[in-house]
Structure formats: structure tokens, C-alpha cells
Specification:
Layout lengths: L1 H22 L6 E9 L6 H5 L5 E2 L4 E2 L9 E10 L8 E4 L2 E2 L1 E6 L2 E5 L15 E4 L10 E9 L6 E2 L2 E4 L1 H39 L4 H21 L9 H26 L5 H20 L2 H7 L2 H23 L2 H24 L10 H89 L6 H23 L9 H18 L3 E5 L10 H22 L3 E10 L2 E8 L6 H7 L3 H12 L3 E7 L2 E9 L10 H6 L32
Parallel strand pairs: 13-14
Antiparallel strand pairs: 1-2, 1-4, 3-11, 4-10, 5-9, 5-12, 6-11, 7-8, 7-10, 14-15, 15-17, 16-17
Helix pairs in contact: 3-4, 3-10, 4-5, 5-6, 5-8, 8-9, 9-10, 10-11, 10-13, 10-15, 12-13, 13-15
Length: 663
């Protein structure tokens, strides 16, 4: 029998559940009538009750349809009856445009802070009250709502509900979420994105899409503040706030179009100029023209919205052509934003009925998706930059390796050139010093009338040894002391050649000043010594001269000149230059070049002149290269000394006729 007891219990429970709707009682108050009456004079419900001409209305109500051009106050009277005695009753309003006050019978429930300009802004602010029991009557009750608005802002009263507190509380919270919380979230997201991309644009101004997106997000954030503001401050009136909001929307339109075109890589020069011109004129009209022109004859807000729609429709076509994933994502966002924008625009102008706008739902998602697209583009750019940096680093590394190899080769080549120069210098020194000594020795042997004794040969060998030692000492030490006077410097050379000249019956004249006018350097002394040795050796070997003159002088304070003349057979200087100078001449020329001087030669039968010029500032002009030494075709090279008689930066060559000796 236990199963019978269980079955009876189940049947009883089903019967109770089936009869529950019949037992439950609906306590929702019953609204008997909703009427409206325009009045700026009746300030209390008692005064409004005396008014005549009340008209039945349906909420939500927009009173400009009934009283066009009316700005001021309108009373709404809702008569209702409670259905459950003793049950609490709640009241909820969706909105009122623009400000107002609410009475339960004759008791004031709530009043906006400002009921005159600048009006408080309750147009997007839901309200909720729990009606006090002391304000309720057993029979018919009256709910008085006085709305203050201006004709230009579509004034009226939104949806009004009376009912159980719990149910209306839930309805109020849903309305608050739709009308306040979502917009606040939009505002925060917009500000964050605006600052983020503004900083990105400031760091890289070339990314203009980031800058336009930052401006667009900033304008959208300012536009949302109009939704969340509860007072007209800082504006002087409701219309001033409306003008500022329209200005922001016009700037939003401009930044939206330019960002879309820049993001897609599109350039419409003429269209952009027209857009800039329209924006400038629209903003000027918004500030200067009466509002009924702006919202009537010149519906600037609708024109801006139409421009946005056209741009939103054009970009998907562009994305279809480019077939780029980022463009496709942004095109999908634009289409969704366009559909929602059209819906909310129709809802705002009461062309369709609905409960809440959809932009607060879609705008954050659209902006986040667009931010992801821009972030993806930024990441791709960064990857390209990193890839370029890596390629640049690899290229620099390769260039460094190549440069290191080139420097090694250059270093090896420089060492080779240095060795070659040293060898050539050694060859010149051997030729000028030891070679000259050998020539003198040969000349002495040839001029000897009888076989020479051992002592004579030993003396000649000692002279060769001394010349070799002098060459080694002068070549390996740059700190050789300069002789105290020209006579001291010339004495060894004069002693060495004078005896030979006597044996060869050559008269020599040495015109050497007793003191240095400008003391030369050690290298300059050595160079002049080698020039004297080579020149006098050439006189002995080739000239068949009878007279030789060696002269040292300073024709100019900045120049020292050594001149050697003889009355030999002479030679053709031009022919020698064309055929190539000999080792001795090249040696003398190279020495002068290294010290910044020059070599000057002139010759004719009976008179040959060689002049060596050196600057007296003691600063070397830099060593001559092998190419300069081996390929120099002109004898007159290096710095240009002055003329013989008067200083001049460009002297004329010294001719044989101008030489004062030999006579």
C-alpha cells in the first residue's frame, strides 16, 4: 500500500500546481488614464487640477506633435488604482526631456535641480521610487509629473510604470544598465583607446591613421559625455550644450572619414578638400546660425550621418578589391556599426518603436575589434622594423668584416710601400754618398800619373768607410745636431771635393755666409748635403767643366736656396725630362719634395745651373709617395719659392744667364 500513498501525494501536488494561477492574485496597479496639459503658470498639482483642456496621451509622449514650438512646462496626469490593498507600490520612469518633478497625489517625490535654463538633463536618466504609504489613497490616486523642456530638443515624457517593487526594481536596473552603464563603459574604452593611439601617433607622426583614430575615439568620448551629463554645466543653456555636441559630431565625421581612408591606403584629394570645406562651414553655421535653421533648413546632423554611412558603404568595396584580412575585418565592423547606427537614428527620431538603442552594445565591440586590427598592423610594422634592423645588423657585420679585410690589405700595402720607400731612400743615400765617393776615387785613380801606393789606396778606402759611416749615422738618427754655422756645415764637403777639383784642374768657388740667417733643420741639412754631393759628382762625371760655383743664400726670409753652377758642356733639360731623369736627379727631386721644397735646373753650353729651394719654417710638408718619386716628370715641383730679387708666390725659373757665377 506504500505505492498508493506515494501516488496520492503526487496527485495532490499536481492539483496544487494546476490551481496555483487561479489562486495567485495580480497586484499590478491599474492605470485609468494618462493626460497632458501645457501650462507655465500652474506650479503645483492643486493648481494644475484646476486647468481645463486636458488631452489624452500615450507614453512615451513627444509634445511638439501636439503643441509645436512650445517651450516651457507640461503637466502629465496619470490616474490609477491599486489592485491589492496594503501592498507597496513602486514607480519607475525611463526618461523625461529635459527636466521635471514628480508628485504622488499632492506629495512631492522628486524634483530636478534646475527647472529653468540651464535645465537639468534627465533625458537619459531612469528613475525609481517606492511610493510611501502615507501618500496613497484607498481609491483613485493621481500621479503628477511636470516636465520642463524646449521645443528644439523634442521635449516630452518617456515610459512610466507602476507596479510591484521587486519587478519594477529589476526593470529599473535593466534600464540603468542600458542607458547609463553601457555608455559609461563606452566612454572609458574610448578615452583609453584615444590616449593609447594618440601616444602611438606622437611617437611616430608618419602613422597618420593612428592620429586620426585617436581623434575619432576622442570625439566619440566627448559625444558620450552628452549622454551621461545630468547638468548643462559648463554650458550656459541647453541649446549651447546641443551646439557643442553637434560640433563634436561634425569633427567626429571628419576624423572618421579620414581615418577610414588612411587605414585603407586610399587618397581622395578632391573629396578630402570638399570634406574639410564642409566641416569648416558646418561648424561655423553651428556656432552662428539660429537652431531652427541648423535642425530644420540645414539638418547638419543628418548630413554628417549620411557622410558616415557613405564612407561605411564604400570601404567594404575597397576591402573586396584589396583582399587584405585587416581591411576585411574593419569592413565587417563598419557594416555592423552602420546597421546599428541606422536603427538608433530611426529610434531617436521616433520613426520606429523600441526599448533601447543598440549602439552602447555594439560600439565597444566594434572599437575593440578595430583596436585589435590597428594593434595587429602596429605589430606587423614592428616586425618589419625588427626584420629590417636584423638585416641592417647583418649588413653592418658583413661591411665590418669587409672593412677589416680591406684595412688589413691596406695595412699590408702600406707596409710594402713603406719598405719600398725605405729601399729607395737607401738606394738614393748609397748613390748620393757612397756612389759619389766611388766616383771621386775612380777619378783620382784615373788622374794618377803613376801607380798608386798602398797608403794612397788605404786613404781612399778610409774615405769610403767614412762616407758610409756618415750615411748610416745620418739615416738612422733624426736627432743629429745642426752645424753651428754654414761654414761648419760645408767644411767636410769642401775638403772632400776641393782636393779632387785641384787634381782635375777645376777651379771651385764656395760662397757660403758665415752665419745662418734662418737655421735649417737636421733633415734639411742632410738633404742639402746629398744635393751638393750628387751635383758635384755629376760635374766630375759629365760636365768637363773648368769652373764650379757653390752658393748658399736666403733670397727671401721664408726660403733657403742652394745653387751650383759650372761652365761645362751642358745638356738639354727638356730632352732629359722626356727621356726620364736619372737616379741622381730623381733622388735630389725626391728629397726636395719630402721637405716641401723644389729643384730648379737650367743648362746651356758653357753654363749649367742647379738650384735647390727649401722653406725655412722647419715644418716638413709630408713625405713624397713612390709614385711621386718614380713618375715625376717636372723638375720644378713642390712649394713655389719667391723670385730671386723680390719675394713672390709664383717665381719664374732661374735661367743660366741670370746666374752670377762662374764668370
Amino acid at each position: 500500500m506504500a505505492w498508493l500513498r506515494h501516488a496520492s501525494r503526487w496527485l495532490l501536488a499536481l492539483a496544487v500546481l494546476a490551481g496555483l494561477p487561479a489562486w495567485a492574485q495580480d497586484c499590478t496597479p491599474r492605470i485609468l488614464s494618462t493626460q497632458a496639459r501645457a501650462s507655465d503658470t500652474a506650479a503645483t498639482p492643486a493648481a494644475a487640477a484646476l486647468l481645463q483642456g486636458w488631452e489624452d496621451v500615450t507614453l512615451p509622449d513627444r509634445w511638439t506633435r501636439r503643441w509645436p514650438g512650445h517651450s516651457g512646462a507640461v503637466w502629465y496626469r496619470l490616474q490609477w488604482q491599486p489592485t491589492c490593498a496594503g501592498q507597496p507600490v513602486a514607480l519607475a520612469l525611463r526618461s523625461m526631456v529635459m527636466a521635471g518633478e514628480v508628485y504622488a497625489n499632492d506629495d512631492l517625490l522628486w524634483r530636478d535641480r534646475h527647472l529653468s535654463e540651464p535645465l537639468s538633463r534627465s533625458w537619459n536618466l531612469p528613475r525609481y521610487w517606492l511610493l510611501p504609504g502615507s501618500a496613497l489613497r484607498p481609491g483613485t490616486n493621481t500621479l503628477w509629473i511636470r516636465v520642463h523642456g524646449i521645443a528644439e530638443q523634442t521635449p516630452g515624457l518617456g515610459e512610466v510604470r507602476l507596479g510591484e517593487p521587486q519587478a519594477l526594481r529589476q526593470w529599473f536596473e535593466d534600464s540603468w544598465w542600458n542607458q547609463r552603464t553601457l555608455f559609461a563603459m563606452n566612454l572609458v574604452v574610448s578615452l583609453v583607446l584615444a590616449l593609447l593611439f594618440a601616444f602611438a601617433w606622437l611617437q611616430r607622426p608618419a602613422s597618420k591613421a593612428f592620429g586620426w583614430y585617436a581623434l575619432n575615439a576622442g570625439c566619440w568620448a566627448l559625444f558620450l559625455t552628452n549622454v551621461l551629463m545630468t547638468e548643462a554645466w559648463p554650458y550656459s543653456s541647453t541649446l549651447a550644450a546641443a551646439r557643442a555636441n553637434l560640433l563634436v559630431f561634425e569633427l567626429f565625421t571628419l576624423s572618421f572619414c579620414l581615418f577610414t581612408w588612411r587605414f585603407g591606403g586610399q587618397r581622395f584629394a578632391r573629396m578630402e578638400r570638399l570634406l574639410w570645406a564642409f566641416t569648416a562651414m558646418a561648424m561655423a553655421a553651428t556656432v552662428l546660425l539660429p537652431w531652427h535653421w541648423i535642425d530644420g533648413a540645414l539638418p547638419l546632423g543628418m548630413v554628417c550621418f549620411a557622410i558616415i554611412c557613405a564612407t561605411a558603404l564604400q570601404f567594404p568595396v575597397h576591402a573586396w578589391r584589396t583582399r587584405q584580412p585587416l581591411h576585411a575585418v574593419y569592413a565587417a565592423c563598419l557594416l555592423a556599426f552602420l546597421a546599428v547606427g541606422v536603427h538608433d537614428m530611426l529610434l531617436l527620431h521616433h520613426a520606429i518603436t523600441g526599448t533601447a538603442p543598440l549602439v552602447p552594445y555594439t560600439a565597444p565591440l566594434t572599437m575593440i575589434a578595430l583596436s585589435m586590427v590597428l594593434g595587429r598592423q602596429f605589430v606587423l610594422n614592428m616586425r618589419r622594423v625588427e626584420h629590417f634592423n636584423q638585416e641592417l645588423s647583418d649588413s653592418v657585420a658583413r661591411a665590418c668584416d669587409e672593412l677589416a679585410g680591406t684595412l688589413e690589405r691596406e695595412h699590408a700595402l702600406a707596409l710594402s710601400h713603406s719598405r719600398l720607400q725605405e729601399r729607395m731612400q737607401l738606394a738614393h743615400d748609397l748613390h748620393d754618398s757612397l756612389g759619389g765617393a766611388l766616383v771621386r776615387s775612380i777619378a783620382m785613380v784615373e788622374q794618377a800619373g803613376s801607380p798608386m801606393h798602398n797608403r794612397q789606396f788605404l786613404s781612399m778606402l778610409k774615405l769610403l768607410r767614412d762616407d758610409l759611416r756618415q750615411m748610416i749615422d745620418s739615416s738612422t738618427s733624426l736627432s743629429v745636431a745642426v752645424p753651428a754655422s754654414p761654414l761648419e756645415w760645408m767644411a767636410p764637403l769642401r775638403h772632400r771635393f776641393a782636393s779632387l777639383f785641384d787634381e782635375l784642374d777645376i777651379q771651385s768657388e764656395w760662397r757660403i755666409p758665415p752665419q745662418w740667417q734662418q737655421p735649417p733643420g737636421a733633415l734639411q741639412c742632410l738633404a742639402l748635403t746629398r744635393v751638393v754631393e750628387e751635383a758635384l759628382t755629376n760635374v766630375i762625371k759629365h760636365s768637363r767643366a773648368q769652373q764650379v760655383c757653390i752658393q748658399l743664400q736666403w733670397p727671401d726670409p721664408q726660403w733657403l736656396m742652394l745653387r751650383i753652377t759650372d761652365d761645362g758642356v751642358g745638356f738639354d733639360v727638356a730632352a732629359v725630362q722626356r727621356a726620364g731623369m736619372g737616379v741622381g736627379t730623381r733622388s735630389m727631386q725626391a728629397r726636395m719634395e719630402r721637405l716641401g721644397g723644389m729643384l730648379d735646373m737650367d743648362s746651356e753650353p758653357g753654363l749649367t745651373m742647379l738650384a735647390a729651394w727649401l722653406p725655412t719654417d722647419l715644418a716638413p710638408r709630408g713625405p713624397a709617395t713612390v709614385r711621386d718619386i718614380s713618375a715625376g716628370a717636372q723638375v720644378r715641383v713642390g712649394a713655389q719659392p719667391p723670385e730671386r730679387q723680390a719675394p713672390s708666390p709664383q717665381p719664374e725659373p732661374v735661367s743660366a744667364q741670370s746666374a752670377p757665377c762662374p764668370r
